Amino acid sequence: MVKAGNSKDTTNTALVKWREYFTDPTLISLIDTALHNNQELNITLYEINVAQAEVRARKGMYLPNVSVGAGAGAEKVGRYTRFGAVDQTTDIEPGKRIPEVLPDYQIGLNASWEVDIWKKLRNAKQAAVYKYLASIEGKNFMVTNLVAEIASNYFELLALDNQLDILKKNIDIQNNALKIVKMEKQSAKVTELAVRRFEAQVYYTQSLQFDIQQKIIEKENRINFLVGRYPTPIKRNAESFINIIPDTIYKGVPPQLLQNRADIKRAENDLAAAKLNVKVAKANFYPTLRLTGGIGYEAFNPKFIISSPESMMFSLAGTLVTPLINRNEIKAIYIGANAKQIQAVYNYERTILNAYIEVVNQLAKIDNLGKSYDLKFLQVQALNESVTISNGLFTSARADYMEVLLTQRDALESKMELIETKKEQINAMVYFYRALGGGWR
């Protein structure tokens, strides 16, 4: 049963947690394992750490840069220079001249700070915050897709199991029919041609088994890859597949997509970051004010280095600079930031449009597949009865072997198509849940 809801219906299936939306214990266990072991998801988690580190780096650029240091050295100046001539005529103490090789020891604090007049650093920090939030939404979007992909592959695996079971049952039916044809040939009611045609049909059906078995192996290994483990048989109950009844679903109101779809929220954060990056690039055209200063002690002898105020030194300066020669480089950066902002706008619009289309498509698919399944179920019932009738007519010589063969083939195809339709119907429920933005909570 499907309830599409209307513009006033605020109930939304996306708000249901995946553990409640999917009830199969095996499927729940697989999803839970994948959320811990999936390599691609783990890579994304470390991308969040990278974005978080970028926020800390941007915040650090906004704060003053303070360092402490100590140093030692020696200097000898030429005698016939201004400093050398002064040294030769200056006494440290009465009768004691400045040494020709003069040591130098110093210790102190140095600081520099770019005054954020144009909010360039603050905007850069906030842009990094939006990028960090976008990376989190990217992780949520990946979780949504991972949950949906595992569920889809799991239900496809159950469908293959049911198709394989149908094939085996049909092989038994066809073998029984082959025995009857051989008996009919012995009594001269049919020719060798009928026997060969029945044999060919049995061989054809048997060959289909191996194709499905290969698909089962590949589907199991796809799930194992998503779960993050090496090939392992997946224990499952295939008998419950055909009895799965889709639950009532609610699409809610359109604005809820903006709240639930992680890819929309990621695009929104990317757009906000792009806008701030334009402001940062624009601020590069303006003058930069930087304050620098230092305080400490300096002396030519370690025993004088803490003498105060004689050995104390300090400096304070402010510089205001504006770009001149490299304005072309700054202009190119600004143009590039503008282009990225426009890209972010289009990406945001595209993401929203894609989300709405996905919801509408899956909702229509659920409705149409439900009607198609009901009709195919009636078709299977009718063809099952036809198989029984054709076998009876053939035994009583009232139908030829071609009618029996065609009826059996049609019955087999209809059963396989019924399972395929059931699989598509369940997958439509899975993808509708994903389209609404469910699964990451």
From TrEMBL:
Coiled-coil spans in chain: 257-284, 402-429
Cellular component GO terms held in the UniProt record: plasma membrane
Protein's cellular compartments: Cell membrane
Keywords: Coiled coil, Lipoprotein, Membrane, Palmitate, Transmembrane, Transmembrane beta strand
Molecular function via GO: efflux transmembrane transporter activity
Its membrane topology: Lipid-anchor
Record flagged with keyword tRNA-binding: no
Keyword Coiled coil listed: yes
Pfam families listed in its UniProt record: OEP (PF02321)
Similarity section: Belongs to the outer membrane factor (OMF) (TC 1.B.17) family.
Protein name: Outer membrane protein
Native organism: Cytophaga hutchinsonii (strain ATCC 33406 / DSM 1761 / CIP 103989 / NBRC 15051 / NCIMB 9469 / D465)
Lineage: Bacteria, Pseudomonadati, Bacteroidota, Cytophagia, Cytophagales
